[in-house]
Amino acid sequence: MHNSNSTISARNMRPGLFLAIATAAQWLARKMNERRNCNALMELSDEQLKDIGLSRGQTESDVHVYSRY
User: Fold this and answer.
1) Of 21, 24, 49, 55, which is the most buried if we count CB atoms within 10 A?
2) What is the pTM of this model?
3) What is the pLDDT, as a whole number, of residue 37?
4) What does the alpha-carbon distance between residue 60 and residue 39 come to, in Å, rounded to a whole number?
């Protein structure tokens, strides 16, 4: 039997729990975006990196500073 009290929705969830879930989702999305950017930079050749003003060492150490939109 289905118990309606066991159904969890955003309106009856505690505000603190909802905020924690939203914050975790934002953090995860940001980390996934950083990883995607890192992978994109690692696929570039040294000549392509030079064209955009980066060296291989910069992409390995400061990749979180650069973003691709």
Assistant:
1) 49
2) 0.58
3) 87
4) 10
33: which residues sit within 8 A by CB, 6+ positions away? 67
pLDDT in tens, 9-67: 656 668 899 999 999 999 999 999 989 988 998 899 999 999 999 888 887 775 445 55
Strands (E), 1-69: none
Instruction: Look up residue 65 and give its two tokens.
Output: 């500073």
Rounded to whole angstroms, how far apart are CA atoms 23 and 20? 5
CA distances from 50 to 3, 38, 54, 66 (A): 62, 16, 5, 14
CA quadruple 14, 18, 23, 28: dihedral sign:
positive
